[in-house]
TrEMBL record:
Family: Belongs to the ABC transporter superfamily.
CDD domains named among the record's database cross-references: ABC_TM1139_LivF_branched
Superkingdom: Bacteria
Protein name per Swiss-Prot or TrEMBL: ABC transporter ATP-binding protein
Native source organism of the sequence: Ideonella livida
InterPro entries in the cross-refs: AAA+_ATPase, ABC_transporter-like_ATP-bd, ABC_transporter-like_CS, BCAA_Transport_ATP-bd_LivF, P-loop_NTPase
Amino acid sequence: MSAPSPAAPLLDVQDLSVAYGRIEALTGVSLQVQAGQIVTVIGPNGAGKSTLLGALMGVLPARAGQVLLDGEAVQAAPVAARVARGLALVPETRALFASMSVVDNLRLGAYRFRQEPAARHREALDEVYALFPRLQERAQQAAATLSGGERQMLALGRALMGRPRLLMLDEPSLGLAPLIVRDIFRILDTLRARGVAILLVEQNARAALRLADHGHVLELGRVALAGPAQALADDPRIVEAYLGAHSSHQARLAA
Ligand SMILES: Nc1ncnc2c1ncn2[C@@H]1O[C@H](COP(=O)(O)OP(=O)(O)OP(=O)(O)O)[C@@H](O)[C@H]1O
């Protein structure tokens, strides 16, 4: 992994606005991710978190603003060009090929390296299996037969087969038991230590802020608060709205 450039962050989002027809889902969103950092975006349902990731990946057009990768504007670039520059997205739906085996789903993640020798593919697969031994045990099983936690591992493993520099995750904890969430977040920590930058969209604010270096609170398509993750976790407004046992969003989530 190359050293972080002091001049340009890996990802620099400047005043990004995205709309669905006349509905503006994101308004003037700015954030940065440096190499080797975990940055989280938390916020309630409908705040625009998935829209943000879709726009960064290039599946949704930006209405205004800039997306810079290593200082270079990519907001008009197609998805494939962003993938080639090291972006990967694990969508909320996981988007697995249900009838295909675990190992074939993983191989698809390395599609952009299809010209590389088989030995390199084996190496990449072994790296994923070392992180997720469960996937190796179930290599020949159809993805449809996996548990929710295993599906999330497979979605993450498939993204890693593309050797991303910036991994974007849309609510990886969704629907998973706390122990599985802990395992997944521990792996994100390991990936950061290996130099992979992560943009983590989460409704599980507590777990996300514990893991991340920086955080952004998205509300109604705007960044309402941003700062070091620890400072946000200690901010009474965040505690009240997102972290307290009886916080308004927690209460809404539990309803
Ligand atoms: N395809 C679409 N067409 C019209 N409006 C949309 C579309 N997708 C999302 N929206 C609207 O854009 C806003 C942001 O949605 P988005 O899915 O990005 O929020 P989110 O923070 O990811 O929510 P959640 O946590 O529920 O996934 C919402 O008001 C939503 O209704």
